[in-house]
Structures are given as structure tokens and as C-alpha cells.
Design brief:
CATH architecture of the largest domain: 3-Layer(bba) Sandwich
CATH superfamily of the largest domain: FAD/NAD(P)-binding domain
GO molecular function: flavin adenine dinucleotide binding; monooxygenase activity
Number of strands: 21
Order of helices and strands: EHEHEEHEEEEEEEHEEEHHEEEHEEEEH
Protein name: FAD-dependent oxidoreductase
Keywords: Oxidoreductase
InterPro entries: Auxin_biosynth/cation_transpt, CHP04046_FMN-dependent, FAD/NAD-bd_sf
Helix content: 10-25%
Radius of gyration: 23 Å
Organism: Cystobacter ferrugineus
Amino acid sequence: MSHHNVIVVGGGQAGLSASYYLQQRDINHLVLESRTMTHTWREQRWDSFTLVTPNWQCALPGAPYQGAEPHGFMKKNEVIAYLDGFIAKVRPPVREGVTVRRLAARAEGGYQVMTSAGEFSADQVIVATGGYHTPIIPRFAERLPPSILQLQSAQYRNPQSLPDGPVLVVGSGQSGAQIAEDLHLAGRRVHLAVGEAPRCARFYRGRDVVAWLADMGYYAMGVDRHPLREGVRDNTNHYVTGRDGGRDIDLRVFAMQGMQLHGQLDDLEGGTLRFAPNLAANLDNADAVYNRINASIDKYIQERGISAPPGSVYQPVWRPSEERTSLPVEGLAAVIWCIGFRPDFTWIDLPVFNGRGQPSHVRGVTATRGLYFLGLPWLYTWGSGRFSGVARDAEYLVDRIAAVRSGALN
């Protein structure tokens, strides 16, 4: 059995960030990755994928963005190149292709880590597997005809890979809205089941909205100071895109151009899909968030006397004349499920979870000595699960690990 001061479970951006700071502290550790490092970026993104945050927010430890377009949006191949550079800089002590099957406490202290490659032990453990593990697909999907191709968002690659015919995209969060746009721009007939995801402007009053929000301190705000507190972790990400230099995604414009919009998908009855009559409400609510964000920027500009182009209020360019609450499945070529993921921490045999199966922690530190989580959405700030904020979280946890090792903390 191999023993280490620290075992990091997960070789994505979070686990590698932890390795970077553990090496800075000269702490013996091992990274265990079930597949290959940063594989989700390589294997679970569609061909036309771009970041929705500007490149200057790419700030992995020791590897800030240094390209020629800090205000641009890296495409998939550019993201992979950026990550390859990060891996080369970190040079982590990693075992790829090793799946952790059980994490439990050892009677003599520390942790037992049982894997597909045997048993390991560690004094402390960082769980850096993220929070997106099991695709959410409703059970009634099992009753769709086998002639209809079903994909989850992580499996989608491009319009050409789908069979001919209409495509139903279920979910209007970041992935759903962008995949629907990808299909729409390729001339495919698209139905989109619109959920409760909010949206935001790409550019407002002369700048990227992300730049305004950064100046306003939003991305430095800890979850303990957010108005929703830990409830913010349940929020759906705003839909917007970095495609073609960045722009808004306005589903109403897509509808004017022929995309068929429906409310939330509820059920399958016989050969008919049933949708809730909430399309108009969901579009209105998304626009309300859009306008509230812009209004907060207006207030910031006014209070500081900043010179900027005039503000505006979004007015709907299209409204549904009726709620389309049914759609025959006959003739559909494919359904793409874009309604998110559930976390799967069933392999962790330790009392660190709340009643919803989520880890209980304060800034990644659990009540169980020496066990930490890293890379979760809103672990501490908006950027905790992203390139922009994971370094701060990783450094914080490694400082904590070093203090526990030295006996400064229990």
C-alpha cells in the first residue's frame, strides 16, 4: 500500500491547481485521475465550443492567459492548448486511468483510498472531481422510439453528426442555448424546450458585462456575503456566448427566424411530448434578469461618474402568440438533453454530506479533519469551478493542509 501526505482525487483544472500549490509547499502528494488529465475539456465539448468568459479570466496558477486576445473567447482547440501548457508547467505526480472506488477513514488516522489499481493511504485528501457527474435525463426518455437518437450535451459534437430531420434540444442553460444556436445556424429545424435559465448581455455600455461585474467586485464576493448565501449554488448559469467574438443569445430572435420554442418539457404521453405552458413566463424572467444586471451596471457608472455610452432597457422583439404544449415524436430525428448533471459522491464513505447529498463544507473545508473539496460551483466565489477562481481556492486549501501537517490546526 502506497502512502502519501496528500492524495488529490481528480486531474482536472482543480486537482492540478492543488498539485501546483502542494509542490510549492514541498508536500508529498499523488493525483489520481480516472481517465486522463483535463479530459472533460477534450471529450465533452462540441466542435464549435468557445468560452463564455473572456480570456483574461483564465488565471490558473502560474499560467495566466498570455495570448493576443485577452478580451476574446478561446475556442475548443485553444482551450486545450492552454490546458496542455498548464499541465507542462505543473508536471503533477499523477496516476491516470485509476478510478477511486471508496474513500474511508483509517482506524489509525488518515484515509484509506481504494482504487482500480489497488489501495493507497493518505494523511489528508482533496476531492477535486467537480460537481457534474451524472447526466440528468428523465425516466420517460426510455419510452422514446429507438429510431430517435438521444444524446446528452456532453456527447454532442456538431450538426453533421446527427441524422436528418428536426432536433429537440431540452434545456436553455449555457449548453442548451449554445447547442440550439449551433444547430440553428447550420440550418437545422430546431425545437427548444425553454427552462428557467436566466440570461445576460455580452456587451453593455461599451464593455463586456464580465468586465463591469469584475470592477463591481462580484467575482470576489464570497458565498458568505452573497444575498442568497449557499442557495446561490443551485442557480443556473446565465446563457450568453463567446462565439464569433461574443454576442447575446436572444431566444426571441431565434423564434423570429424559425426556431420552435416550447415551455419546460414535462412528460411523454403515447406518441406526444408534453410541455408546460410557461414559455412566455420563462422568456420574460430571463429578460428581467438581463435588465437587472444592466441596471446594476447603470447604477455603478452613475455613482462613480464614469464616462460610458448611454444605457438601455431590453424590450422583447417577439412574444409567443400561443403556448405550444405538445409535439408529436413522429418525425423527430434526435433529442439532446441539456438539463444538467447530478453529483455522485457515493464512493465517499464519510459523514460529510447534507440531506441533499451535497458535501457540507466551509470554503472547501469539511468538519472531518483532513478532508477537503475543490472545484465545486460556488465553493467560495463565482469563479470557484472556473479558470478564474480555482487558484485562490486551491491555495487556501493547501495553506490549510500545511497548517494541519505542522500541528498549527487540529
